[in-house]
Structure formats: C-alpha cells, structure tokens
Design brief:
4 helices, 434 Repressor (Amino-terminal Domain), mainly alpha
C-alpha cells in the first residue's frame, strides 16, 4: 500500500473516530493534548500525524462514549 493511501486512511480514521465519539474538533484536540488549529490540519491532511499522536487517537477510540 502506498504511503499516500495510508495517510489518507489515517485522516479518514481520525475524523471518523471524532465523529463516532460525538466530539467537536476542539473537544478531540483537548483529549489528545494539542491545539485545535493543529488538530484540524491533521484531520484535513495538511499536517502529518506522528505515531505517538495516532496512538492517542486510538486510546480515545477505545474509551466508551460518554466518558
């Protein structure tokens, strides 16, 4: 799988995680410890996502909705 395709899938995944959790962009950015502007750039593919940040997304994904 190409790097471009993997990056696209990650962008789609992080947006899907946020929407699935019922979180606003600002709320998600707080949960993963970054400012909303940089989070928005990552979600739109305008900034790269490092492995540590992606792990934070996955932790948010595993937490039950409403917690």
């Amino acid at each position: 799988m190409s790097t471009l395709k993997i990056e696209y899938l990650i962008e789609v995944d992080i947006k899907a995680i946020r929407i699935g959790k019922g979180l606003t962009l600002r709320a998600m950015s707080r949960k993963i410890g970054m400012d909303a502007s940089n989070y928005s750039k990552m979600e739109r593919g305008k900034a790269s996502i490092d492995e540590i940040t992606y792990e934070k997304f996955l932790r948010v994904k595993r937490v039950n909705k409403g917690k």
